[in-house]
Protein backbone atom coordinates (compact mmCIF):
# COMPACT_ATOMS: atom_id res chain seq x y z
CA UNK A 1 0.00 0.00 0.00
CA UNK A 2 2.90 2.27 0.70
CA UNK A 3 3.66 2.35 -2.95
CA UNK A 4 0.03 3.07 -3.79
CA UNK A 5 -1.09 -0.38 -4.91
CA UNK A 6 -2.35 -3.19 -2.69
CA UNK A 7 0.50 -5.03 -1.03
CA UNK A 8 0.27 -8.62 -1.97
CA UNK A 9 3.59 -10.11 -1.05
CA UNK A 10 5.37 -11.04 2.15
CA UNK A 11 8.01 -8.44 1.25
CA UNK A 12 5.33 -5.76 1.14
CA UNK A 13 4.17 -6.86 4.58
CA UNK A 14 7.64 -6.32 6.00
CA UNK A 15 7.66 -2.77 4.64
CA UNK A 16 4.17 -2.16 6.07
CA UNK A 17 5.31 -3.35 9.47
CA UNK A 18 8.30 -0.99 9.39
CA UNK A 19 5.97 1.83 8.43
CA UNK A 20 3.69 1.04 11.35
CA UNK A 21 6.60 0.96 13.80
CA UNK A 22 7.78 4.35 12.56
CA UNK A 23 4.33 5.88 12.87
CA UNK A 24 3.79 4.34 16.30
CA UNK A 25 7.08 5.78 17.52
CA UNK A 26 5.85 9.26 16.63
CA UNK A 27 2.65 9.08 18.69
CA UNK A 28 2.68 11.45 21.65
CA UNK A 29 -0.96 12.43 22.10
CA UNK A 30 -4.39 10.89 22.37
CA UNK A 31 -5.39 12.38 19.02
CA UNK A 32 -2.34 10.97 17.28
CA UNK A 33 -3.01 7.60 18.90
CA UNK A 34 -6.62 7.62 17.70
CA UNK A 35 -5.52 8.56 14.16
CA UNK A 36 -2.98 5.71 14.19
CA UNK A 37 -5.62 3.26 15.41
CA UNK A 38 -8.08 4.29 12.71
CA UNK A 39 -5.47 4.14 9.99
CA UNK A 40 -4.31 0.66 10.94
CA UNK A 41 -7.23 -1.19 12.48
CA UNK A 42 -10.21 1.02 11.66
CA UNK A 43 -13.21 -1.06 10.58
CA UNK A 44 -13.64 0.67 7.27
CA UNK A 45 -10.26 1.79 5.96
CA UNK A 46 -7.83 0.08 8.31
CA UNK A 47 -4.59 -1.02 6.62
CA UNK A 48 -4.68 -4.37 8.42
CA UNK A 49 -8.12 -5.12 7.07
CA UNK A 50 -6.97 -4.27 3.55
CA UNK A 51 -3.92 -6.48 3.97
CA UNK A 52 -6.13 -9.35 5.14
CA UNK A 53 -8.42 -8.86 2.19
CA UNK A 54 -5.46 -8.76 -0.18
CA UNK A 55 -4.81 -12.43 0.49
CA UNK A 56 -7.07 -13.05 -2.49
CA UNK A 57 -4.44 -11.55 -4.79
CA UNK A 58 -1.53 -13.50 -3.34
CA UNK A 59 -0.24 -16.38 -5.44
CA UNK A 60 -1.36 -19.70 -4.08
CA UNK A 61 2.08 -20.92 -3.01
CA UNK A 62 2.56 -17.79 -0.89
CA UNK A 63 -0.90 -17.64 0.66
CA UNK A 64 -0.01 -19.65 3.74
CA UNK A 65 3.05 -17.60 4.62
CA UNK A 66 1.30 -14.36 3.74
CA UNK A 67 -1.60 -15.31 5.99
CA UNK A 68 0.72 -16.04 8.91
CA UNK A 69 2.71 -12.85 8.48
CA UNK A 70 -0.35 -10.66 8.08
CA UNK A 71 -1.81 -12.16 11.28
CA UNK A 72 1.43 -11.51 13.10
CA UNK A 73 1.31 -7.92 11.88
CA UNK A 74 -2.29 -7.61 13.06
CA UNK A 75 -1.39 -8.82 16.54
CA UNK A 76 1.65 -6.58 16.65
CA UNK A 77 -0.44 -3.57 15.66
CA UNK A 78 -3.05 -4.36 18.28
CA UNK A 79 -0.60 -4.97 21.10
CA UNK A 80 1.47 -1.92 20.22
CA UNK A 81 -1.67 0.23 20.20
CA UNK A 82 -2.59 -1.12 23.61
CA UNK A 83 0.90 -0.48 24.91
CA UNK A 84 0.85 3.07 23.52
CA UNK A 85 -2.51 3.73 25.13
CA UNK A 86 -1.13 2.66 28.50
CA UNK A 87 1.88 4.93 28.08
CA UNK A 88 -0.33 7.88 27.18
CA UNK A 89 -2.55 7.25 30.20
CA UNK A 90 0.42 7.14 32.53
CA UNK A 91 1.82 10.35 31.05
CA UNK A 92 -1.57 12.04 31.45
CA UNK A 93 -1.81 10.94 35.06
CA UNK A 94 1.70 12.22 35.79
CA UNK A 95 0.85 15.55 34.19
CA UNK A 96 -2.34 15.85 36.23
CA UNK A 97 -0.48 15.08 39.45
CA UNK A 98 2.18 17.60 38.52
CA UNK A 99 -0.38 20.31 37.83
CA UNK A 100 -2.22 19.84 41.10
CA UNK A 101 0.91 19.29 43.13
CA UNK A 102 1.33 20.87 46.53
CA UNK A 103 4.97 21.51 47.26
CA UNK A 104 5.11 20.88 50.98
CA UNK A 105 8.65 22.23 51.15
CA UNK A 106 7.61 25.73 49.99
CA UNK A 107 7.68 28.25 52.88
CA UNK A 108 4.16 29.43 53.74
CA UNK A 109 2.90 32.92 53.01
CA UNK A 110 2.72 34.95 56.20
CA UNK A 111 -0.34 37.14 56.64
CA UNK A 112 0.69 40.77 57.21
CA UNK A 113 0.34 41.38 60.92
CA UNK A 114 -0.72 44.73 62.25
CA UNK A 115 1.43 46.36 64.90
CA UNK A 116 1.52 49.44 67.07
CA UNK A 117 3.09 52.64 65.82
CA UNK A 118 6.22 53.74 67.77
CA UNK A 119 4.33 56.77 69.08
CA UNK A 120 1.47 54.55 70.29
CA UNK A 121 3.97 52.24 71.98
CA UNK A 122 5.63 55.02 73.97
CA UNK A 123 2.25 56.62 74.75
CA UNK A 124 1.00 53.36 76.21
CA UNK A 125 4.15 52.89 78.24
CA UNK A 126 3.95 56.41 79.65
CA UNK A 127 0.27 56.01 80.50
CA UNK A 128 1.11 52.76 82.29
CA UNK A 129 3.95 54.33 84.28
CA UNK A 130 1.76 57.20 85.46
CA UNK A 131 -1.28 55.02 86.09
CA UNK A 132 0.88 53.00 88.48
CA UNK A 133 1.61 56.28 90.32
CA UNK A 134 -2.09 57.05 90.71
CA UNK A 135 -2.62 59.40 87.76
CA UNK A 136 -5.66 59.36 85.50
CA UNK A 137 -5.83 60.21 81.81
CA UNK A 138 -7.55 63.41 80.62
CA UNK A 139 -8.27 64.52 77.09
CA UNK A 140 -9.31 67.68 75.28
CA UNK A 141 -10.19 68.86 71.77
CA UNK A 142 -7.59 69.41 69.07
CA UNK A 143 -9.55 72.33 67.60
CA UNK A 144 -9.27 74.61 70.59
CA UNK A 145 -10.33 78.04 71.71
CA UNK A 146 -7.84 80.83 72.26
CA UNK A 147 -8.92 81.01 75.88
CA UNK A 148 -7.75 77.48 76.77
CA UNK A 149 -4.69 77.38 74.52
CA UNK A 150 -3.42 80.85 75.48
CA UNK A 151 -5.36 83.18 77.69
CA UNK A 152 -6.00 80.98 80.70
CA UNK A 153 -2.38 79.81 80.46
CA UNK A 154 -1.27 83.37 81.05
CA UNK A 155 -0.61 84.33 77.44
CA UNK A 156 -2.62 87.58 77.35
CA UNK A 157 -3.57 88.96 73.89
CA UNK A 158 -0.47 90.43 72.20
CA UNK A 159 1.83 88.64 74.60
CA UNK A 160 5.13 88.04 72.74
CA UNK A 161 5.25 84.38 73.87
CA UNK A 162 2.33 83.73 71.51
CA UNK A 163 4.79 84.22 68.65
CA UNK A 164 6.75 81.20 69.79
CA UNK A 165 3.78 78.95 69.17
CA UNK A 166 3.50 79.09 65.34
CA UNK A 167 -0.26 78.75 65.52
CA UNK A 168 -2.60 77.40 62.84
CA UNK A 169 -5.83 79.39 63.04
CA UNK A 170 -9.08 77.90 61.83
CA UNK A 171 -12.50 79.39 61.08
CA UNK A 172 -14.68 80.82 63.80
CA UNK A 173 -11.81 82.29 65.82
CA UNK A 174 -10.62 78.82 66.82
CA UNK A 175 -7.17 77.34 66.42
CA UNK A 176 -5.41 73.99 66.36
CA UNK A 177 -4.00 73.56 69.83
CA UNK A 178 -0.29 74.28 69.81
CA UNK A 179 0.36 72.12 72.87
CA UNK A 180 -1.51 69.81 75.23
CA UNK A 181 -1.38 72.41 78.02
CA UNK A 182 -4.99 73.58 77.40
CA UNK A 183 -6.05 70.21 78.83
CA UNK A 184 -4.57 71.39 82.15
CA UNK A 185 -6.98 74.32 82.11
CA UNK A 186 -9.97 72.22 81.12
CA UNK A 187 -9.18 69.68 83.85
CA UNK A 188 -8.83 72.29 86.57
CA UNK A 189 -12.03 74.02 85.51
CA UNK A 190 -13.91 70.71 85.59
CA UNK A 191 -12.69 69.65 89.02
CA UNK A 192 -14.16 71.18 92.14
CA UNK A 193 -11.25 70.42 94.40
CA UNK A 194 -7.66 69.18 94.24
CA UNK A 195 -5.90 66.80 94.45
CA UNK A 196 -5.46 66.60 90.70
CA UNK A 197 -3.11 64.11 89.12
CA UNK A 198 -3.57 63.74 85.39
CA UNK A 199 -1.65 63.01 82.27
CA UNK A 200 -2.99 64.15 78.92
CA UNK A 201 -1.60 62.48 75.80
CA UNK A 202 -2.60 63.91 72.43
CA UNK A 203 -1.82 65.61 69.16
CA UNK A 204 -0.74 69.23 68.81
CA UNK A 205 -0.03 71.42 65.77
CA UNK A 206 2.41 74.16 64.77
CA UNK A 207 3.57 75.41 61.40
CA UNK A 208 7.01 74.02 61.78
CA UNK A 209 8.57 71.49 59.44
CA UNK A 210 12.12 70.15 59.49
CA UNK A 211 14.09 67.06 60.49
CA UNK A 212 13.01 67.39 64.10
CA UNK A 213 9.63 69.09 63.77
CA UNK A 214 6.47 68.05 62.03
CA UNK A 215 3.35 70.28 61.73
CA UNK A 216 1.45 67.63 63.68
CA UNK A 217 3.18 66.09 66.67
CA UNK A 218 2.39 64.34 69.93
CA UNK A 219 2.76 65.44 73.52
CA UNK A 220 1.96 64.22 76.98
CA UNK A 221 0.99 66.85 79.47
CA UNK A 222 1.26 66.18 83.19
CA UNK A 223 -0.47 68.18 85.90
CA UNK A 224 -0.44 67.79 89.66
CA UNK A 225 -2.25 70.23 91.95
CA UNK A 226 -2.59 69.82 95.70
CA UNK A 227 -1.67 71.41 98.99
CA UNK A 228 2.08 71.65 99.53
CA UNK A 229 3.32 70.56 96.09
CA UNK A 230 6.95 71.65 95.59
CA UNK A 231 9.68 71.62 92.99
CA UNK A 232 11.04 68.59 94.85
CA UNK A 233 7.88 66.66 93.91
CA UNK A 234 8.39 67.65 90.29
CA UNK A 235 11.98 66.49 90.23
CA UNK A 236 11.24 63.26 92.11
CA UNK A 237 8.36 62.46 89.77
CA UNK A 238 10.48 63.18 86.70
CA UNK A 239 13.26 60.94 87.98
CA UNK A 240 10.91 58.08 88.74
CA UNK A 241 9.33 58.51 85.33
CA UNK A 242 12.46 58.68 83.12
CA UNK A 243 14.10 55.81 84.99
CA UNK A 244 11.14 53.63 84.12
CA UNK A 245 10.90 54.86 80.54
CA UNK A 246 14.64 54.77 79.79
CA UNK A 247 17.37 53.12 81.85
CA UNK A 248 17.19 52.85 85.68
CA UNK A 249 20.40 54.89 86.03
CA UNK A 250 19.13 57.82 83.92
CA UNK A 251 20.01 61.19 85.46
CA UNK A 252 17.77 64.28 85.41
CA UNK A 253 18.85 67.92 85.24
CA UNK A 254 16.64 71.00 85.49
CA UNK A 255 17.69 74.17 83.65
CA UNK A 256 15.94 77.49 84.29
CA UNK A 257 13.64 78.48 81.44
CA UNK A 258 10.50 80.46 80.74
CA UNK A 259 6.91 79.48 80.08
CA UNK A 260 4.04 81.91 80.73
CA UNK A 261 2.07 79.25 82.65
CA UNK A 262 4.80 78.12 85.07
CA UNK A 263 6.87 79.96 87.64
CA UNK A 264 9.60 78.96 88.03
CA UNK A 265 10.01 77.12 84.74
CA UNK A 266 12.61 74.57 83.79
CA UNK A 267 13.77 72.66 80.76
CA UNK A 268 14.53 69.10 81.70
CA UNK A 269 17.51 67.17 80.39
CA UNK A 270 18.21 63.49 80.90
CA UNK A 271 21.59 61.77 80.64
CA UNK A 272 21.97 60.76 77.01
CA UNK A 273 20.33 57.33 76.56
CA UNK A 274 22.83 56.48 73.82
CA UNK A 275 26.11 57.10 75.67
CA UNK A 276 24.85 57.21 79.29
CA UNK A 277 26.39 60.64 79.68
CA UNK A 278 29.86 59.98 78.26
CA UNK A 279 29.21 62.15 75.19
CA UNK A 280 28.35 61.01 71.68
CA UNK A 281 27.22 62.37 68.35
CA UNK A 282 23.53 62.22 69.22
CA UNK A 283 23.95 64.43 72.30
CA UNK A 284 26.59 66.62 70.58
CA UNK A 285 29.12 65.41 73.15
CA UNK A 286 27.27 67.05 76.01
CA UNK A 287 26.16 63.82 77.66
CA UNK A 288 22.67 65.36 78.10
CA UNK A 289 19.51 65.43 76.07
CA UNK A 290 16.63 67.86 76.46
CA UNK A 291 13.30 66.05 76.64
CA UNK A 292 10.68 68.27 78.20
CA UNK A 293 9.50 71.60 79.58
CA UNK A 294 8.20 71.89 83.11
CA UNK A 295 7.63 74.13 86.08
CA UNK A 296 5.47 75.05 89.04
CA UNK A 297 1.98 76.04 87.91
CA UNK A 298 1.88 79.85 87.81
CA UNK A 299 -0.36 81.26 90.60
CA UNK A 300 -2.25 83.23 87.96
CA UNK A 301 -3.18 80.02 86.15
CA UNK A 302 -4.38 78.42 89.38
CA UNK A 303 -6.44 81.49 90.20
CA UNK A 304 -7.91 81.64 86.67
CA UNK A 305 -9.01 78.04 87.07
CA UNK A 306 -10.64 78.68 90.44
CA UNK A 307 -8.00 77.44 92.88
CA UNK A 308 -6.61 79.71 95.59
CA UNK A 309 -2.83 79.91 95.01
CA UNK A 310 -2.39 80.69 98.71
CA UNK A 311 -3.70 77.21 99.51
CA UNK A 312 -2.78 75.14 96.49
CA UNK A 313 0.29 74.71 94.37
CA UNK A 314 1.14 72.41 91.52
CA UNK A 315 3.65 71.27 88.99
CA UNK A 316 3.29 70.52 85.31
CA UNK A 317 5.32 69.31 82.42
CA UNK A 318 4.92 68.73 78.71
CA UNK A 319 6.85 66.03 76.90
CA UNK A 320 7.26 65.58 73.13
CA UNK A 321 6.29 61.96 72.41
CA UNK A 322 7.71 61.86 68.92
CA UNK A 323 11.09 62.77 70.30
CA UNK A 324 10.85 60.00 72.88
CA UNK A 325 9.87 57.51 70.16
CA UNK A 326 12.82 58.67 68.05
CA UNK A 327 15.24 58.22 70.96
CA UNK A 328 13.70 54.93 71.92
CA UNK A 329 13.76 53.37 68.46
CA UNK A 330 16.80 55.25 67.15
CA UNK A 331 14.87 57.03 64.40
CA UNK A 332 16.89 59.93 62.94
CA UNK A 333 14.14 61.88 61.19
CA UNK A 334 10.71 62.75 62.59
CA UNK A 335 9.06 62.47 59.18
CA UNK A 336 9.74 58.73 59.18
CA UNK A 337 7.11 58.50 61.91
CA UNK A 338 4.37 59.90 59.67
CA UNK A 339 5.13 58.43 56.26
CA UNK A 340 3.20 55.22 56.90
CA UNK A 341 6.01 53.07 55.58
CA UNK A 342 5.19 49.58 56.81
CA UNK A 343 8.89 48.71 56.96
CA UNK A 344 9.23 51.00 59.98
CA UNK A 345 6.47 49.15 61.82
CA UNK A 346 8.08 45.81 60.98
CA UNK A 347 11.37 46.98 62.45
CA UNK A 348 9.77 48.32 65.59
CA UNK A 349 7.90 45.04 66.02
CA UNK A 350 11.26 43.29 65.62
N1 LIG B 1 3.36 73.44 76.54
C1 LIG B 1 4.79 73.58 76.38
C2 LIG B 1 5.14 73.52 74.91
O1 LIG B 1 4.62 72.74 74.21
C3 LIG B 1 5.50 72.50 77.12
C4 LIG B 1 5.33 72.65 78.60
C5 LIG B 1 6.24 73.36 79.32
C6 LIG B 1 4.27 72.10 79.23
C7 LIG B 1 6.12 73.53 80.66
C8 LIG B 1 4.12 72.23 80.60
C9 LIG B 1 5.06 72.95 81.31
O2 LIG B 1 3.11 71.71 81.27
O3 LIG B 1 4.92 73.10 82.64
O4 LIG B 1 5.97 74.27 74.48
Structure description:
- This protein is an alpha+beta fold and 350 residues long.
- It folds into two domains: 11-100; 118-349, BirA Bifunctional Protein, domain 2 (2-Layer Sandwich).
- The chain contains eleven helices and nine strands.
- The protein has helices spanning 10-26, 30-41, 47-53, 60-99, 118-132, 146-149, 182-190, 231-245, 299-304, 321-329, 342-349, and strands at 136-137, 143-145, 174-176, 196-205, 216-227, 252-259, 262-271, 288-297, 312-320.
- Strands 1-4-5-9-8-7-6 form a seven-stranded mixed β-sheet, with helices on both faces.
- Strand 6 and strand 7 form a beta hairpin.
- Helix 1 packs parallel to helix 4 (60-99) and helix 5 packs across helix 10.
- The chain starts with 9 loop residues before the first helix and ends with a helix.
- The model is unreliable at 1-5 (pLDDT under 50).
- Bound molecules: 3,4-dihydroxyphenylalanine.
- The site of 3,4-dihydroxyphenylalanine (DAH) has 11 residues, from strand 8 and strand 9.
**Mean pLDDT across residues:** 91
CATH topology name of the largest domain: BirA Bifunctional Protein, domain 2
Output the CATH class name of the largest domain.
Alpha Beta
The count of domains is 2
Q: Helices and strands: which structural class?
A: alpha+beta
Shape: rod-shaped
The count of helical stretches stands at: 11
Terminal residue distance: 79 Å
Amino acid sequence: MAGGGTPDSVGDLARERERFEREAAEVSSRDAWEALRLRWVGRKQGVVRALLAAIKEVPVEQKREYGQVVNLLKRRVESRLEELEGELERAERQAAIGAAAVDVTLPGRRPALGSLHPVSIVTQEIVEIFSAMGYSVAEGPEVEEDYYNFQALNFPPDHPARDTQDTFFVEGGKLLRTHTSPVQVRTMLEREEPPIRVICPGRAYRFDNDLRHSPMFHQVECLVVDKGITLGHLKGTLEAFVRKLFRPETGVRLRPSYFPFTEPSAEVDITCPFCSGDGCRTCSDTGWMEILGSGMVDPRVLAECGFDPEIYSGFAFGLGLDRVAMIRFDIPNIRVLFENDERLLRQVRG
